[in-house]
Structure to design on (616 residues):
């Protein structure tokens, strides 16, 4: 199969493997990102639940206080039942009246207390009228308080009518709040059942643990308790006797009726949003039925102030949070239990810290393993294809190199055996030709065997004198040059002859014989019949340069000059004899001896091969 198709198949396999690894990496990274998002979402949900609990706890005191007021407290003055004089004389009904605990009372969260009579007339216990006003001002309240309450009452009646309030109270309580049970639990000072994290301190997300949440909320509750105690003390100071009367009513649990035979039914206070979208008011309202008459009582809450207080209490948890009025039915997440408000947490979570990123070492290891496997596969494929090509080239070159001398052997041996050569000179020429071809075959086999041995073992090196080394091989080198009519000129200066090199004598001789033989093949037809062998010294090295005056080496051939078996059958047929192994063998031998072999192109033509060996 063509090598190109092998590489195409390899490229397709690499593409498939890399695509699979890319998909796997993307899946793992997406899983890690989803896990981090889930952890952050869980942390945000717990933070929102904690914020809801804080706000509901803060509102519980206000709502419980307003829900516990008796219905008669919505009158500026009302008759005292069972009042006794100093002599324990009983007063008749209506002879003794007491002021409402709401008269002159100012609380931050409440703007006004309003009562609608059956005829639609709106009154307020904070606005005494007629003679009662003269009795109340300035003893029980100030004129400024009455004026302010009157202005607020006028504003309230513009926004909320009796019919609108009545319709809202007639609506199914379930449509107004889905968390009545939780709100009542808060009235009793409890905590909603959906807040186990704060009680148990068991969860941990980001940098905050359950214990830290408990500590935060203990501090918050302590601050809230102190604030509420101060507010309660202020109420007692403003209306001590009235509040004592109110407490007595609640302790006995007996509603005050104008007549023992009159039926009384008072609903629980419910939070409502009234008015249009642009002028909404937040109230706590209830219906009171005394006999056959219906009264509607409402506590107008200061929504801007409450919103500011609530958001301020959770600013450390959710700095971007907001509260949105809820007027629709159905369960909604992050809804307050006490008021129809929806918490929008925002995105900021000051206490959240991203968990340590998942270790990418396994993923990096997988990528490294896959890339290493792909690179190794490419190297193996390239080596196998190159080996296959070299094997084919070697077979072709060897086939050609063997066919020529074998043909010559067969021809001349047949001529000699059959007696066709009778002339003695011609007979001697045939014998010389046979000997030359035999040497050619021997040189070929010697190079192949030498290269095979070089692949399996290393060469021992010893110190060799240059003079002895050159003298021992110059006769063989000159004989090879003279065989093609070349004159080998050996140039060893007097200061170099005493030197020594580290190497192995047979290996050095084989390298120089291959270089001289290569020069004889390609420079046999040169005009300059000289062949130079120059020995010199260079910075700890001894160089042996073999130069000829032949045609030189083309630049495109220099890249594969030292590649073993690089000569194809076509090149072998059109070039000098050889299989392209001599130079490769020589370079490998030189490098095993600690030196190198390189090719140079002299400026005046020809080719030069430089053998570098370390000096001893």
């Amino acid at each position: 199969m063509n090598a190109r198709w092998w590489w195409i198949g390899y490229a397709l396999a690499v593409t498939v493997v890399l695509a699979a690894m890319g998909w796997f990496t993307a899946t793992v990274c997406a899983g890690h990102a989803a896990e981090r998002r889930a952890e952050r979402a869980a942390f945000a949900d717990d933070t929102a639940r904690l914020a809801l609990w804080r706000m509901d706890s803060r509102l519980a005191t206000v709502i419980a206080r307003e829900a516990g007021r008796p219905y008669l407290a919505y009158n500026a003055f009302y008759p005292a039942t069972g009042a006794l004089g100093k002599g324990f004389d009983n007063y008749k009904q209506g002879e003794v009246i007491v002021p409402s605990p709401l008269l002159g009372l100012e609380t931050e969260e409440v703007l006004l207390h309003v009562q609608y009579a059956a005829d639609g007339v709106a009154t307020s216990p904070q606005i005494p009228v007629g003679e009662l006003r003269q009795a109340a001002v300035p003893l029980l309240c100030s004129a400024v308080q009455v004026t302010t309450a009157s202005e607020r009452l006028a504003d309230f009646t513009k926004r909320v009518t009796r019919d609108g309030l009545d319709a809202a109270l007639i609506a199914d309580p379930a449509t107004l709040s889905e968390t009545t049970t939780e709100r009542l639990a808060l009235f009793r000072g409890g905590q909603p059942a959906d807040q186990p994290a704060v009680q148990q301190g068991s969860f941990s997300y980001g940098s905050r643990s359950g214990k830290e949440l408990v500590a935060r909320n203990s501090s918050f509750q302590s601050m809230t308790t102190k604030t509420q105690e101060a507010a309660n003390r202020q109420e007692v100071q403003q209306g001590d006797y009235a509040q004592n009367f109110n407490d007595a009513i609640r302790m006995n649990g007996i509603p005050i009726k104008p007549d023992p035979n009159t039926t009384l039914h008072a609903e629980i206070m419910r939070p409502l949003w009234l008015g249009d979208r642009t002028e909404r008011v937040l109230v706590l309202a209830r219906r009171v039925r005394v006999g056959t008459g219906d009264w509607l009582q409402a506590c107008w809450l200061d929504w801007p102030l409450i919103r500011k207080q609530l958001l301020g209490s959770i600013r450390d948890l959710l700095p971007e949070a907001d509260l949105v009025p809820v007027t629709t039915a159905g369960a909604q997440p992050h809804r307050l239990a006490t008021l129809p408000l929806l918490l929008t947490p925002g995105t900021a979570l000051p206490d959240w810290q991203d968990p340590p990123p998942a270790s990418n070492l396994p993923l990096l290891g997988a990528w490294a393993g896959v890339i290493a496997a792909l690179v190794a596969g490419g190297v193996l494929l390239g080596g196998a294809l190159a080996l296959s090509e070299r094997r084919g080239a070697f077979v072709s070159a060897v086939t050609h190199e063997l066919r020529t001398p074998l043909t010559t052997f067969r021809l001349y041996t047949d001529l000699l055996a059959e007696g066709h050569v009778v002339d003695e000179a011609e007979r001697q020429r045939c014998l010389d030709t046979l000997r030359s071809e035999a040497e050619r075959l021997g040189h070929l086999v010697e190079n192949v065997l030498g290269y095979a041995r070089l692949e399996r073992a290393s060469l021992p090196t010893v110190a060799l004198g240059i003079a002895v080394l050159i003298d021992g091989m110059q006769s063989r080198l000159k004989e090879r040059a003279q065989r093609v009519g070349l004159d080998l000129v050996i140039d060893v200066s007097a200061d170099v002859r005493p030197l020594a090199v580290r190497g192995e004598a047979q290996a050095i001789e084989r390298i120089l014989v291959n270089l001289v033989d290569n020069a004889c093949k390609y420079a046999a037809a040169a005009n300059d019949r000289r062949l130079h062998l120059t020995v010199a010294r260079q910075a700890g090295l001894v160089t042996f340069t073999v130069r000829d005056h032949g045609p030189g080496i083309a630049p495109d051939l220099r890249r594969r000059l030292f590649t073993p078996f690089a000569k194809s059958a076509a090149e072998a047929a059109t070039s000098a004899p050889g299989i392209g192994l001599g130079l490769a063998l020589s370079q490998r031998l030189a490098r095993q001896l600690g030196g190198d072999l390189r090719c140079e192109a002299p400026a005046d033509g020809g080719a030069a091969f430089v053998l570098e060996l370390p000096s001893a």
The chain has two domains: 24-342, 364-614. The CA atoms of residues 130 and 136 lie 10 Å apart.
